[in-house]
Amino acid sequence: MDSNLRSEIISGLISLVTSELFVVLVRSREFQIIIRKNDQRSEEERKLCNQGLVRSVFLEVLLFAPISSLLAFLIVRPIALDFYFLSTFIARSLRHRVAFDAAMGIVGYGFPFAAIRRTVVKMALKTLKDFAAISIPSESSIAVSEVEDANAASATASAATGESS
After folding, report:
1. What DSSP string runs through 47-81?
2. Cα separations (Å) of 8 from 13, 35, 79, 101, 160?
3. Is the pLDDT reported for residue 137 higher than 50?
4. Cβ 63 vs Cβ 113: under 8 Å
5. Were 72 and a residue from 17, 47, 108, 146 both cysteine, which residue would form a disulfide, CB within 3.0 to 4.6 Å?
6. What is the mean pLDDT of the segment spanning 117-144?
């Protein structure tokens, strides 16, 4: 295997591990809730668990953080290395390179993941709002349908008695 490729793979792994460690720090409260037994959780914490806290953290750790880190590694890192200061910084020593790759992991978790998460939340809320609009008719549409029903009943009664409007 080419030494440059091996070096890039190691840089990517450092970035990924740092990103995952950062997830643990950022979501430490959620991890503490998940680890507790059900009788040790507050009512609010039980509600969070019932609403999918475990799935949310699981998805973040195993899907969103690695994807986000990979995107930053493939997109941001090459652009950053084009800057003379950064390329000379990582060329100084292995320690500098590891520090740069670790910083890329933190940036990778923070930037693309936050944007992806915000987008997914907005899409989910819009879907729920649209579903609610379809499932729960507004008061005005209920009033209109009641008037239409009353008119239809009146017309049926008029036709049955032979009256004309």
Report:
1. HHHHTTHHHHHHHIIIIIHHHHHHHHHHHHHHHHH
2. 9, 36, 15, 10, 86
3. yes
4. no
5. 108
6. 69
